[in-house]
Design goal:
alpha/beta, Maf protein, five-stranded mixed β-sheet
């Protein structure tokens, strides 16, 4: 069973729903989730927010958070997840913001912040790899889904 099928089972068992906010993964997480037959029972939708303006206007990420922490940050990833969760009314949400290609002076190429939001609050993780643009996007997406599954399974506020 792949990770997106596992997430589907976790959500169905809880009667829970999911939404996604993606930047550097460009819709790949949403694509993976919708390859599972019956995913419409728990998957509500997504926002692909490449532009800062979409992060702010659609997802509600405060401009001050972006100015203070940078668009590639734990704070922005968590705010994106929280924002799409509020927008869609989902139980859980996962978000990505990072650098699939090129560094930004703070983080090297292949860096992503993954944010998850749910009943236990918000949590963020930094993941780094060096697999080229397409490989990084594939890995970011899979790792984001694994972190989401971890969060759902644990549903505690003290997640490491």
């Amino acid at each position: 069973m792949n990770i997106q099928e596992t997430i589907g089972q976790l959500l169905l068992a809880r009667g829970a729903t999911l939404s996604v906010a993606e930047s550097c993964t460009g819709g790949r997480i949403s694509h993976l989730l919708t390859t599972v037959s019956g995913s419409s029972a728990y998957y509500l939708g997504s926002v692909t927010s490449y532009a800062v303006s979409v992060k702010e206007k659609v997802l509600g990420v405060p401009a001050e958070t972006i100015r203070k922490h940078g668009v590639v940050s734990r704070e922005v990833a968590e705010a994106m997840a929280s924002g799409v969760r509020q927008l869609t009314g989902s139980t859980y949400a996962v978000a990505t913001t990072g650098l699939a290609e090129g560094g930004d002076g703070r983080y090297p190429e292949g860096s992503v912040w993954i944010g998850v939001s749910g009943p236990a609050g918000n949590k963020g993780w930094l993941y780094q790899c060096d697999a080229g643009r397409k490989g990084n996007i594939r890995r970011f997406s899979t790792v984001a889904l694994r972190k989401l599954a971890f969060y759902i399974r644990n549903e505690i506020t003290d997640i490491k």
